[in-house]
Amino acid sequence: MDTMRDRFAPLVTRLLDEDPRVVAVLAEIGADGFAEARRRHPDRVVNVGIREQLLVGAAAGMALTGLRPVVHTFASFLVERPFEQVKLDLGHQDAGAVLVSAAASFDWPAGGYTHMAPGDVALLDTLDGWTVHVPGHPDEAETLLRHAVAAGDDKVYVRLSLQSNARGLPVDGERLRTVREGRAGVVVAVGPMLDAVLDATEGLDLTVLYAATVRPFDAAGLRRATESAGTDVVLVEPYLAGTSTAAANDALADVPHRVLGLGVGRAELRRYGRIDEHVRAHSLDARSLRERIGAFVGAVPAGV
């Protein structure tokens, strides 16, 4: 199966054909995939070189002229390194852009810690007005990227990953989707964590919700689910553990509830290894998730 990033350049090339406002802004990473787009639209494919602060600053300037920039590089170079520009050039100036990352939390372990960004969504949470999409399949990535480009002049972050569920689900860029219904608690699986969560909760009396869009957080959807499934909530996210616990707590602020946030731990793993080894090291594999979720909710079998 092709990856989310395999779909990215061909889709943006089509968007450049379809919409004269769209401009692709790159910092060397992924530039080879835009050779045809650059031939067809030489004035709307801009490679600033390895200058990530300029990457975001230039995109903000383009946005202020009425263009819709699609900005791409690794997550650590797109959110963390140029964070001041994300905060000021985009946020303070109220300039919209679509930031599309690659490498996610630990998708290229050989690149080392400089190429890992498990805190990207949490960092964007310190700013106002961002929509954050975390697709779990290449089909969803295409849908959500089209949503993002069409979203007027909004500030949108699309987090691409090599990790993927086996199949894509219909996503609307807004609401939580109910995948399984139960009565003993709610598990929210974000993006590529869905398959592991479904395996981990097989046979347990739990509702499983799926989120491919995490900001704005679908508070109403979570509340509806807890009305029949109870107010024990587990969040399983492919980035920093606990990133969305405040959003879940706010959604349930007027009712007694418990929230457990599972995700990537804060400790730096210096043996870089493979993606699957990082998944296990952070206890995000199905077996570990079953133990952690089961201990939290009491491991109630379905039908009991």
UniProtKB/TrEMBL annotation:
Gene3D superfamilies, A to Z: 3.40.50.920, 3.40.50.970
Cofactors that this protein relies on: Mg(2+)
Keyword annotations of the record: Isoprene biosynthesis, Magnesium, Metal-binding, Thiamine biosynthesis, Thiamine pyrophosphate, Transferase
Entry's EC annotation: 2.2.1.7
GO cellular component: cytosol
Pathway: Metabolic intermediate biosynthesis; 1-deoxy-D-xylulose 5-phosphate biosynthesis; 1-deoxy-D-xylulose 5-phosphate from D-glyceraldehyde 3-phosphate and pyruvate: step 1/1
InterPro entries: Dxylulose-5-P_synthase (IPR005477), THDP-binding (IPR029061), Transketo_C/PFOR_II (IPR009014), Transketolase-like_Pyr-bd (IPR005475)
GO biological process: isopentenyl diphosphate biosynthetic process, methylerythritol 4-phosphate pathway; terpenoid biosynthetic process; thiamine biosynthetic process
Start and end residues of each Transketolase-like pyrimidine-binding domain: 2-168
Single GO MF descriptor: magnesium ion binding
Family: Belongs to the transketolase family. DXPS subfamily.
Subunit: Homodimer.
Protein name, per record: 1-deoxy-D-xylulose-5-phosphate synthase
Naturally occurring in which organism (per UniProt): Streptomyces fungicidicus
